């Protein structure tokens, strides 16, 4: 038997073990952490704008969510869920912004079709925002994981939720905002 053939089962086992690991973020910011400020290009309804976290927080809380790639099934589901809930977010005084490492042209199309022109999505092609928020996918660090944060006007993270399943990001961030709003009255 050739020596390298003896290592194939071990390599295969290692690959299987690694592929079974969750592809969520390596680490994430936690409640109480200060949210890093950023300014970037964003698209709202197919129109390019500049998004500043600092300026937006002066108006109220921000729901910042990271997603792996525009037009993939999970990201499309998540965008639809956020679009459907945008009126309730506005009632709570919150702004929703999605971030991925897609280019702005792709996000222009995504903001029109999947976000339904209801909220902005931001381009992070150099992955500086993804890195600042520890939102890189474990096994695919070139992409954002699916991570949602609720950030209050004092730049504090009050809630974090990480799951590649898009189904609970809206419900969980909404609940965190409602609880925060009840405390601040």
* Amount of beta strand: 15-25%
CATH fold topology: Glutaredoxin
- The chain-level mean pLDDT equals 88
Number of domains: 1
Helix content: 25-40%
Strand runs, count = 7
What does the secondary structure layout of this molecule look like, with pairings?
Blueprint: H1 3-20, E1 39-44, E2 47-52, H2 53-57, E3 62-66, H3 73-91, E4 95-100, H4 104-113, E5 120-123, H5 128-132, E6 147-151, E7 157-162, H6 169-183
Parallel strand pairs: 3-4, 4-5
Antiparallel strand pairs: 1-2, 1-5, 3-6, 6-7
Helix pairs in contact: 3-6
Notes on the protein architecture:
With 185 residues, the protein is of the alpha/beta class. It has a single domain (40-183), classed as Glutaredoxin. It is 39% helix and 21% strand. The chain has six helices and seven strands. The chain has helices spanning 3-20, 53-57, 73-91, 104-113, 128-132, 169-183, and strands at residues 39-44, 47-52, 62-66, 95-100, 120-123, 147-151, 157-162. A seven-stranded mixed β-sheet has the order 2-1-5-4-3-6-7. A hairpin with a 2-residue loop joins strand 1 and strand 2 (47-52). The longest helix is centred in the middle third of the chain and has 19 residues, at 73-91. The radius of gyration is 18 Å and the shape is globular.
What labels would you give this structure?
185 residues, Glutaredoxin, seven-stranded mixed β-sheet, 6 helices
State the gist of this model:
The chain is of the alpha/beta class and 185 residues long.
